[in-house]
Structure formats: C-alpha cells, structure tokens
Specification:
25% strand; alpha+beta; Structural Genomics Hypothetical 15.5 Kd Protein In mrcA-pckA Intergenic Region, Chain A; 3-stranded antiparallel β-sheet; Pseudouridine synthase; 7 helices; 314 residues
Length: 314
C-alpha cells in the first residue's frame, strides 16, 4: 500500500486498484485465501496500513477465442445486406468482456446471422460502437469489413448523429447549453471516469430541456464526441446526475430528501428505474454503400416510460 494513504479496508482498496474487479469478486478471493498481506491470510475487513505488502492470486478463467451463438431475441430496427440497426435493451452487454462471455449482443447476433464483419478481434464481430450495459438504445452493426471501416470513419469524424434522452436530477438554469469538460479515468476507482479542465480527452455534450418535473428534468442530449460514460460524467459534473445511475450518484436523493413525502416518492421512483435513465434514442449516418443518409428513432423502453408517467403524475 502506498505511503501517505489513510487506513482502508483491504477489499475496498483492491476493488479500486484492480481494473474490472468488483467488491464481491475481491471478497470471494479473500475468503478463498487468494489474498495475503505481509504474507499472512487476512479477512475482508482487514485495515491496511502504509507499506503493507499485498499479494493477490487471481485464478484465470481462459477467455474464449470465439463467441458462441445464442438464441436471444433481438429488437431489429433495420437490416440489409451490409448492416443491422438494433435497439439494445438495458442489462445487455454489447460484446464479450471480463465476467460477461455469454448473453451479450454479439452472442445474439451470431445466432441471427453468419455475416458479421471480422475487422475486430474474433469475440467482437460486427461491433462498430458501444453503449453501456445499463443504457438502452440504438446501435449499428457492420456485416462486412468495408461497411465497418466506413462507419468507423464516420464516428471518428463525429458526423454520426446521436441523440440520447435522459432524466436527470434537478432543474437546469438554461433550457439548452453545452458541457465541455475533458474526461479521464478516475485515479481512485479505475472503473469510473471523471471530468477535468486540464488533462484527459476532450468531450463535448449538447443538452436541451424537454420537460421539467418537481425535482428532475427530461433532457435530450447530442454527442459531439463519444467518450466512455460521457453523458453520465458530464451531467454529474454539473450537479445533475442521471436518475438511477448508481455509479455517478444518481441513486442518492439529491433533491427532496428533506421532505418526508417527497423522499418516499423518490425512493419509489428509484424502484421503478433500477438503472440509469438513459436511452440512445436517435441514430443517423450515411449508408456506406448507397450514400443515403439514414436516421432511426427508437421507442423508449417500458421502465423509462413508467418513470415518466409517474413523474408527470406529480
């Protein structure tokens, strides 16, 4: 453990220090005696001190070389010989990754078609871009390498039209505006990102208020850049975390907690929206073969609509 740090539980320290880990996973490693401090087996609540030497043995589960087809329903918005546009449900990972080697969008796509671009590594065929696991909405999938390269170039040039809808905590002073903060990986938690005015990658988000409620706002947001967790980090940086977003403060009762009735109401709404209220609603791009500009608009998922219905009943 680095000098100068305050005492900290070993399971908390390792969860933040090891990329793509979870506290539950770390605790299981500790229980199985895969973690030692100063060559001694410890419990999860062991308090680390500066200069403690931590050793972690992580049993390796071999990553599959290829992804297997799985019969998972797909909400296909559009399909032709070159690409597919799908409406991804919340809870589904776009492609296999650590701890998510099955049940992904790619598993479903491979069952649907044998024609997917091989421009990526074998476990990510056809994937041009991603949205977070608990974000719902539109994705375009490439069926061949030429289509894939063309779409990737459009994303790189920021000519792809992307509009998200989100419910954020609080009300905005301006009905429309932009958030222009760099984004970088958090030093304290490698699974999170944070905003910065000095370093990191440039990120620009445009927002517009659609509808206001007592303690929250329905927004539409357009991305000029496409950084990981961009909308979630940018709205959080303005004190307006996305409703339901556990990672960036959206499950904390930011407003209304001092009023018993409102507190109960907000808690009930968080039960309806068990994930971040963020949906990739519109996707537009130039078709790589026909050169036609194509624009797709998706319907909001049931949990999002239920949240809005209850907010409008205020």
């Amino acid at each position: 453990m680095p000098a100068g740090k305050k005492k900290e539980r070993v399971d908390v320290f390792l969860t933040n220090a090891i990329e793509n880990s979870t506290r539950n996973r770390i605790q299981k490693l500790i229980e199985a005696s895969y973690v030692t401090v100063n060559s001694k087996i410890v419990k999860s609540n062991y308090q680390l001190s500066p200069f403690d030497v931590i050793e972690v043995t992580i049993p390796i589960t071999p990553r599959p070389e290829t992804t297997q087809p799985e019969d998972i329903p797909l909400d296909i918005v559009y399909e032709d010989d070159y690409l597919i546009v799908v409406n991804k449900p919340a809870g589904m990972v776009a492609h296999p990754a650590y701890a998510h080697y099955t049940g992904t969008l790619v598993n479903a796509l491979l069952h649907h078609t044998k024609k997917l671009s091989k421009l990526n590594e074998p476990i990510r065929p056809g994937i041009v871009h991603r949205i977070d696991k608990d974000t719902s909405g539109l994705l375009v999938i490439a069926k061949d390498e030429v289509t894939h390269a063309n779409l990737s170039k459009q994303f790189a040039k920021h000519t792809i039209e992307r509009e998200y809808w989100a419910v954020a905590w609080g009300k905005f002073k301006e009905q429309k505006g932009e958030i222009n903060y760099n984004i970088k990986r958090s030093h304290s938690d490698r699974k999170k990102f944070t905003h910065s005015t000095s370093d990191g990658k440039t990120a620009l988000t445009f927002y517009e208020v659609i509808e206001e409620f007592d303690f929250s706002t329905l927004l539409k947001l357009r991305l000029k850049t496409g950084r990981t967790h961009q909308i979630r980090v940018h709205l959080g940086s303005k004190g307006h975390p996305i409703f339901g977003d556990a990672t960036y403060g959206g499950r904390i009762l930011v407003y209304g907690s001092q009023l018993p009735k409102m507190k109960s109401r907000m808690e009930n709404l968080l039960e309806i929206m068990k994930r971040q209220a963020l949906h990739a609603k519109i996707l537009g791009f130039v078709h790589p073969v026909t050169n036609e500009f194509m624009k797709f608009d998706s319907t909001l998922p049931d949990d999002f609509n239920s949240l809005l219905k209850n907010l409008r009943a205020e």
